[in-house]
Design goal:
The protein is mainly beta. It has no helices and 14 strands.
Length: about 260
């Protein structure tokens, strides 16, 4: 997927498949992959007016990709994000977000402030916390009492190698698509990411976080097998534990 700049670039909203631009976006480009000796064009896009442009093509094994822009509005090529999805060259299954409700994940929590801050928002696929006070994310119901927790139960054992945790943005009234560099004052500053071993909760590698200032924290690790994960919030500046999304990437662990 190729994301170009939005018209309202000073206050952007999370891009959907139908978000269009008229002022600054990339209109024409090639998606290219490296075959080991040269760049090969995998797909060509012309007349684009979508901020989020999904491009599909026949499977191609490569170590790198690039976007070759051939046309853009207002004189300059502007791209804010490039994402590539595939599978290992061996044909292994592509990891999916197994925490998603649509993939069978079931969310629960230690408490919930009220129905405007539902635990179901934790795994609905919306990271930014849009409509924060009306279902955009979860808040606990015990101010200044920790720890609080949110938990995702999978629809079976999964082999995991990545977990992502998204806290509440400071600009909760007009949140943006989170990036790895987006900072926050109100999101959890001390928390631990855990998985269920079958007997007890254990922190994932590097999963104990202290003095956090980032909205989006990504944890990658050697594969582990688990049926559930949870985020144990141990301190926040606001007194409330507030999260917008928890993602876990993996594949079925098999029989």
């Amino acid at each position: 997927m190729v994301y170009t700049v939005q018209d309202n670039y000073q206050s952007p909203q999370p891009a959907t498949d139908t978000t269009t631009f008229t002022q600054y976006g990339v209109t024409d480009f090639n998606v290219q992959g490296w075959d080991g000796s040269q760049w090969v064009t995998l797909a060509t896009v012309s007349g684009n007016n979508l901020v989020k442009r999904t491009v599909t093509f026949n499977a191609f094994t490569t170590s790198r990709i690039r976007i070759n822009v051939t046309g853009a509005l207002y004189y300059v090529s502007r791209i804010v994000e490039v994402e590539a999805y595939g599978q290992g060259a061996s044909g292994a299954s592509t990891p999916a977000n197994v925490a998603l409700a649509s993939n069978g994940g079931v969310a629960s929590a230690s408490s919930q402030l009220n129905s405007d801050y539902p635990i179901a928002a934790i795994n609905d696929g919306e990271r930014a916390g849009v409509n924060w006070t009306h279902g955009g994310g979860w808040a606990d119901g015990s101010i200044s009492q920790w720890p609080d927790w949110v938990q995702i139960d999978f629809n079976g054992a999964k082999t995991l190698d990545e977990i992502d945790v998204f806290g509440l943005q400071d600009n909760r009234g007009a949140p943006v698509d989170p990036t790895a560099a987006l900072t926050c004052a109100g999101c959890p500053i001390d928390f631990t990411v855990q998985y269920w071993t079958g007997v007890s909760w254990q922190a994932i590698p590097n999963g104990i976080v202290r003095n956090n200032t980032l909205v989006w924290r990504t944890f990658t690790f050697a594969p582990i097998t688990a049926t559930r994960v949870r985020v144990l919030v141990e301190h926040t500046n606001s007194g409330w534990s507030e999260l917008t999304e928890v993602e876990a990437y993996g594949t079925d662990a098999g029989p």
